[in-house]
Amino acid sequence: MALVDYKLLISEAFSEAQVKVIEKRADGVIYAEADPEFIRKAAKLFVHDNGCILLTLFACDERKEAGKFGIYYAFGDRKRGEVIVIKTAVETEFLSISRDVPAASLYEREIKDMFGVVPQGHPDGRRFVFHGNWPGGSFPLRKDFDRKHKPEFMKRPLYFQKVQGSGTYEIPVGPVHAGIIEPGHFRFSVAGEPIINLEAQLYFVHKGIEKLSEGMTFEKVFYISERISGDETFSNSLAYCQAVEKIAGVKVPKRAAFTRMVFAELERLICHFGDLSGICTDVAYGFAWSHFNLLRIWSYQLADELCGVRFLRSVNAVGGVRKDFLRGKNSIMNEYLDKIEAELKDIMHICRRNNLLRDRTEHTGILENKAAVDLNAVGPGGRASGVRCDARKAFAYEEYDSVAWDEIVLKDGDVASRMEVKARECFESIKIMRQAGVVLLNDELGRTGQASGLNDGCKEESNNAVRIEITQLPPDTWALGITESSRGENVHFVMTDSEGNISRYKVRTPSYCNWPALCIAVNGNIVPDFPLINKSFNLSYAGNDL
Amino acid sequence: MGYIIIQLVLMVGLAPLINGIIKKVKAFSQKRKGAPILQMYYDIGKLLKKEMVVSETSSWIYKAAPYVVFGSTAAAALLVPAVTNAGGLNAAFSGGDVLVLLYTLALGRFFLMLAGLDTGSTFGGMGSSREGMISSLMEPSILIGLFTLGLASGSLSIKMIMSESLSKVCPIADPVYIIIFFVLVIVLLAETCRIPVDDPATHLELTMVHEAMILEYSGRQLALMELAAAVKQLILMTLIVNIFFPITAVLPAGVPGVAIMIILYIVRIVLLAVVIGVVEVCIVKLRFFSIPNLAALSFILAIIGFVNYFVIGR
Q1: Could you read off the pLDDT of A156-198 as tens digits, one per residue?
Q2: How many domains are there within chain B?
Q3: Are residues A115 and A191 in the same domain?
Q4: Which stretch, A451-465, B107-121, B251-265, has highest mean pLDDT?
């Protein structure tokens, strides 16, 4: 496919007054500013004509500096690894692009709740982040909203889509569930057992992460980024670190990049094993449940061996990794990986041949490719429906393009496919970890070849080799960090204020994209299959509610 | 009279043990130590001491149901003699007819379903509707299965069916009996809400059947409901071991014989529990709408057994 020069594309399609390309930034992101009137046309140009996806959409309160709210649209071209950020400046309302780009719907409702800027022509005028208890006229992400302000408790009815007809009824489930899981309210509209419509009401664990980060130093926000979602600690902090490193104009040492890859893949292993065992629990397949759990525990033990923290907290650091964790750890890592790989092969062999398990998972919870593309379903959920959405390939970061591995894409989109994608990705992760391990080992031994040039064969244990100190960020600038967590593409946007502190931290986790996809995938299935479908996506509540 | 007391104590006292054994077997397959075998006794003891939380919207049905369910199950337990040899069968209640047994159990189930509906909670209603579906699907096969055994023994009384088994050298080798054996095993799994029909260990409200109906219960009432479910499971298991695997050896009547019989009975029940545990480990819970297939399988087996009786004769 011919390379599209997006700068050229924009200048051909629009006049300077409509959409103006400001710069191609050092990190390759094309930045343009648009007249609010033309944003729909621009969105159509990118998404419909050029196959881009909407990476994220958010607002910034820039009334102090510019007198207006800035709305940022980040489009990504996965085939070419290009990112285009378009900014429009609006006062109280902006043009909705949701009718053209369905994936934008939730972002626009979120902007309405958090900033009080109203999307014009949005098909769904209901609240999204806030429930009935939040008073109107209070917009927490505006700069003049005090973080400590406690608004009055309101009691307003909730609105769910009504399904009518004889024999249909609603099943309200949650937010408190029978098991110890995160809170979320699900409203099923059913006719007997088959589900006609499902709506998920989330944001019960809204922690105000974005508001909290405002005005903090970048070192402190790093710790917040690690705590967005417990099991995505590393990939979230990695996305944040990437954004900050881009702002500072720093490239991390190669040794740090390979170390980061090892931990990112280890986190993926841990999560995928957890998901696979969860799927097996939901079909009451105790044998596979316990064995996947065993693999998960082995992966946790490996994490413990490598860095001393099973949940990979504080392994990452802005500018690299905190310590040269993997020095001398190659053999123990390989020992664990061999053990995990052999066991995983066995279990998957048994699972694939279990007809009863296949009967449960095949044709259950099908997410059609069209829906996956429209809603920008990411991660294994998207890849099982035939979307090539792996950020490690699309927006290659760290050293993912220098190791050999395959992106797993299947086309059926059912629970079985998602299970298969996750299982096969585990093998790929092991492959990546092994290769990274070899590079790191060669570097330690000072061998030439692939490893030449990593930190000049630095042998003594020095943290300089894996981390570049950043003391101050340049003021008034921004950058995007994109990583692939176990659930999918993670997009973090970091903007600095005039003092180099964080003025806006916008996080878009994969769960945010996939919750609507889950609600679509469930339709037409029966109620007892919902937990299984839910588990096959295994979305994070904390990561969505922020 | 002595036999009846032994029977009741045995059935109610032994029932929780079965769940402990099945759970232990599953734990072994999962490389876990698992809960103690006596865990369910502790649970019931704990529940009996706890206070009850009763929904404000519930009616008298909710409060009466645990007693009806437990009472009817305990009554049904009296109809299935655990000790068949050593004079046990003679002492058994001779009016213990197959139909009486099934519909005494059905009375309990009826109230269980009503109780699920009574609180007006979503899950209770879902559980009741599913229980209704599963039990109506399973009813024909258990009826025809037991009728076939009734044909073979010339009477529908459980006492006669069991004594007919005693008179055979090896009843499970009989072509009619072996087919009905499989029917009853499927019915056992379905009626007692085990995998592949329901998962007794699940925490997912949306997939529950039996657990969904008793979701609102707490304290003493929950203890009765749990115990009733365990006793019902033991009743069906007793039917299976005493009809298909009877102890035919001639034992002296009186205390020593009865004691030996009780020990042998417990041994057979424990073995069957282990088998159930192994079956549960190997299979996966069925998709809810595949349960009719399982019911159809057991029904067809029952019909084949029934026809077999006429083709092969006694």
Answers
A1: 887 888 888 888 888 888 788 877 888 999 999 998 889 999 9
A2: 1
A3: no
A4: B107-121
pLDDT digits (tens, 9 = 90+) for B9-55: 999 999 999 999 999 999 988 888 999 999 999 999 999 999 999 98
> How many whole angstroms separate alpha carbon A292 and alpha carbon B157?
49
Whether the per-residue pLDDT at A448 is higher than 80: the answer is no
Nearest chain A Cα to B124, which residue? Answer: A171
Q: What is the pTM of this model?
A: 0.91
- Which helix (H) or strand (E) segment is B268 a member of? helix B255-282
Q: Could you list the residue range(s) of the whole structural domain that residue A337 is in?
A: 209-452+466-545
Q: Is A359 within 8 Å of B215 when comparing Cβ atoms?
A: no
Q: Do A359 and B206 touch (CB under 8 A)?
A: no
| ipTM, 2 dp | 0.87
B→A interface, C-beta within 8 Å: 26, 29-32, 122, 126, 195-196, 199, 201-207, 215, 280-290
- Compute the Cα dihedral for A13, A19, A25, A27 and give only its sign: negative
A188/A301 same-domain check = no
Put simply, the answer to whether A526 touches B206 (Cβ < 8 Å) is no
Question: Is A499 found in the same domain as A413?
Answer: yes
How many interface pairs between A and B have CB atoms less than 8 angstroms apart?
A: 78
Q: What is the pLDDT of residue A4?
A: 65
Encoded tokens for B215:
């979701």
Q: Is A478 helix (H, G, I), strand (E, B) or coil?
A: strand
The whole-angstrom separation of Cα A126 and Cα B251 is 78
DSSP-derived 3-state class of residue A474: coil
Q: Which residues contact A391 (CB under 8 A, 6 or more apart)?
A: A397, A482, A483, A484, A488, A489, A490
Indicate the residue of B31, B195, B288 with minimum beta-carbon distance to A528: B288
Is A152 part of any domain?
Answer: no
> Which pLDDT score, from 0 to 100, does residue A462 have?
53
- Cβ-nearest to A531 among B26, B207, B215: B207
Tell me whether residue A143 is in a domain.
no
